[in-house]
Give the backbone structure.
Amino acid sequence: MTMLAPKLAAARAVGSLARRAGRGGGTSLPGKVLMRLDPHAISALAQRLVRGSVVISATNGKTTTAAMTASVLDLAGISLVHNRAGANMAGGIASTLLSAARPGGRIDGELGLFEVDEFWLDRLTAELQPRALLLSNLFRDQLDRYGELETIADRWAAVATSLPAGTRLVLNADDPLIADLGREADSVTYFGVEDRSIAMPEMQHASDSKHCRRCGHAYVYDAIYLGHLGSYRCPSCGRERPAPTVAADAIQLHGTTSSTFSLRTAAGTATVKLPLPGLYNVYNALGAAALCLDLGVSPELVVAGLEAVTAAFGRAERIQIGDIELSILLVKNPAGANEILRTLVLEQAELDLLGVLNDRTADGKDISWVWDADFELLAPRVRRLTCSGTRAAELALRMKYAGVPADRLVVIGTLEQALDAALSAAPDGRLFALPTYTALLELREELARRGHVTRFWERRGADR
Amino acid sequence: MPELRVCALYPELMNIYADRGNLLLLQRRCEWRGISFTLLRSDLGDELDPEAADLFYIGGGQDRDQRLCALDLAEVKRDALHAAADRGAVVLAVCGGYQLLGHSYQLGDEQLPGVGLVDLHTVRSDGPRLIGNVAIEVELEPGRPRVLAGFENHGGRTHLASSATPLGRVLRGHGNNGEDGLEGVRRGTVIGTYLHGPLLPKNAWFADWLMAAALGLTGPLDPLDDELEDAAHREARRAAGVS
C-alpha cells in the first residue's frame, strides 16, 4: 500500500483540478489517471472491502437496480462504496474506489456495489472478484459501440464459466440469453415475472434473442413480458425458462409514478409498493431483491428498502419547476424506449413532451434505433412534442411517421430554448422529458444552472 | 388507384438496424399520395413469386441470421429474384443484405453464397469494422448528382468487378471497402448499399425515386410537405461532415 498512496494522491489532485476548471463532475477522470499509474488499482482497493463486492450489469436498468440494492443495504446497515453516478467503466469504478480510499490501507465502506458497463464486465469482474454477480438483460443497444448482441452474450458466457467457485450468480430467468449463463453453475438464483395478466399480445419490433442458443431453433413463448423477456421454451431441444425462486405476480402499474406487486420468495409472499413506474422497474426490483436476499438480508428489509427507493438520476426522476412537474425518463435504446413508452401511455391524459435526441459518442453515434422503438404507441397521445438535440429533426420525423400531426411537433435544436418552449406549453402542469444519455446530462446541467436541481457531484451524501 | 407492392425478405431476421424505418417511409409516402400500399413478406423456406411485388427489400442482420438467409436466398429464392430484377422490379439490399447480392461473402474459412444479381464479392476483414456517418454522391439520373447520407457499420469489404457500377462515390465515410472510394452497387433497378437501416428517412428523395422506379412512372410523383424530411437529411449530412 505504500506504493499505492502517492498514486491515489496524484489521481485525486487531477480530479479536483478538473472540477475547479469547470469540467463537469469529473466522475471518471481521476480513476482513469489512477488506472494509468496502476492498472490493477481497482483490484488493490477492492480488496480493502471487508464484505467484498457485488456487480450488476444489464443493457437496461443497471443504475436503478443498483439504487434499489443500495436502498435495501442502507436499511440493513451495510455501508457501501457505490458508483451511484452511473460511471460504470473502469475509470468510473476506479474513481469511486479512489474517493472512498483512506490512509493506512483503509476504505470508507464495507461492501462494494458496482454497476458495470456490459462491455467491461469481463475485465472488471476479473479485477473486482465479486462475491455475487447480478445479470438482468441483454438488448440490442448502440451497435456502433458494442457490436452484435451475440458477441456480448459470448463474452458474458465466458465470464460466467470463469468465475471462482462460490461466486453467486443472480440471473433473470425470463431473458433466455441471461438464463443460459447459469445452466452449468452450481450457485445460481433465478428471478422472473409470474403474472400472465401483464403479458403482451405480441412481440415488439426490436425483439432480440428469439432463438435457442443451444440448438438454433426458434423459441416458443407462452407469455412475453418485455422485449424478448418472458416464459419460453425450445420445441426442438426442450430447453426452457428455469423456474424462478424470486418472482413477482399480481402486478399493478400505476401510470408514470409507481407500481405494486406481490414478491414471492422462499420465505413467503409480501406486497411491495414500489415508488417507481413501469414493468421494467418491477424487473429491476426483482433483481435487487434476489441479490439482497442472497447477501443474507431479511425479506422484511428487502421490501422496506424497495419501498424507500428514490429515482436514480434521470430515471423517472421528478423535478418541480414553478407550476410544472417535469418527469425525466432516459431513453437510449429501443427496448428501454419501448418500456418508457408503454409506461407513458398508462397516463390517461394527452401528453406534453420534450424529446432530446443526441448522437454523441456516449449516446451512440448511430441513431437508427429511433425507428425500431414503438413510438406508434405514443403517437395518439401526443399533444405537443418539442424536439431538441443534435438530431432533433430526425426525432420529429420519426414521430411524424408514427402518426403525430405535424402541427404538434416543434423542432428547436438548442436545448435551452427547447426547454423554455416546452415548459411554456404544458397546460396540465406536467411535462415529460425523454433525453438520450448526453442529453440527460445537458438537461440536468441546464436545470442546475437555473437552480432547480443541484449538480450531481454537489449531492455527495445528500441522497444516502 | 396505383398500387405499390413491397415484399420484405426475412423481416424477422434481417432487421438489425431498424430496417422497418425504410418500409414505413415507403408506406406513408404512398398513403399520403393516394397510392395503395401492400406489404408482403417472405421468410426462410418461402417460395418467392417474382410477379408478386414491385419492390423487394433485404435489410441487415447478425452473422447467424445472415448465414441462414444466405443459404435460403441461394437455394430457394435465387431464380425468382433474378426474374423480378429482369422484369424491372426494384431490389433494394442494405448492409447485410447487400453483402448477399453478389457472388459470395467470404468469412474466414467459410464462404456464404450470394444471389449473383450483381458482379461483386465481399470478404470479412480482420481489420476494424468500418463504422460511422457516411455521405455519398449518386447520379441516378445523368447530370443530376445528389447526396445520400446515413450510417455504416460493417466488417465485410465489398469489391466490385470492373463491369459493375457503384451506387455512388464516397464524400465522407468508408463505403464498400474503405479504399477505392466507391459505395454500393447499382444495376438498373437493383441497388445495394452499406448505408444501413433507416436510410430512407434520411433521404426521402431517394424513397421517392425508388417508388417511382418500382411503379414504372416516367413523370414525377406528387410533391409532399417535406420540411421535416429535408431537415433530417441536412442533419444526416452535417453528421457526416458534408453540408
